[in-house]
Amino acid sequence: MNSRVVRYILVAIGWIAVVLGVMGIFLPLLPTTPFLLLASACFMRGSPKLNHWLHQHPQLGPILVNWHQHGAVTSVVKRRGLIMIVLSFTFSIIMVPLWWHKGMLLTGCVVLLYCFNRLPIVDIQPDSVSVAELDENS
């Protein structure tokens, strides 16, 4: 396949992931961080310029930097993720009719909660210069 076509496909997938990630900020069922990581990976291979833009973005960039530098999520992301995992699996367990399906879902929920709960939390701190300036002005 032509490398130019592959780059266009990667950029298109990256933009779809960015849109889904931004929607995930406002919609509790869509995760933000995985979509932004996918967008970053696609942009890294398809358009380094877009990847740089994404990492420098004032709202989206800190999420990526936090993951790349620390392999961590913020406490808000973790809390929202845990709530949504429990709610979605509870709904699924209630809806399926067969007991062995319920058991498989419960097992999947426990494994997912265990893995997700192991993610470290690193909250993004405000810029130290601006905090110092606030302290001087107080």
Automatic annotation (TrEMBL):
<dbReference type="InterPro" id="IPR007401">
    <property type="entry name" value="DUF454"/>
</dbReference>
<feature type="transmembrane region" description="Helical">
    <location>
        <begin position="81"/>
        <end position="100"/>
    </location>
</feature>
<dbReference type="Pfam" id="PF04304">
    <property type="entry name" value="DUF454"/>
</dbReference>
<keyword id="KW-0812">Transmembrane</keyword>
<keyword id="KW-1003">Cell membrane</keyword>
<keyword id="KW-1133">Transmembrane helix</keyword>
<protein>
    <recommendedName>
        <fullName>Inner membrane protein</fullName>
    </recommendedName>
</protein>
<feature type="transmembrane region" description="Helical">
    <location>
        <begin position="7"/>
        <end position="30"/>
    </location>
</feature>
<keyword id="KW-0472">Membrane</keyword>
<keyword id="KW-0997">Cell inner membrane</keyword>
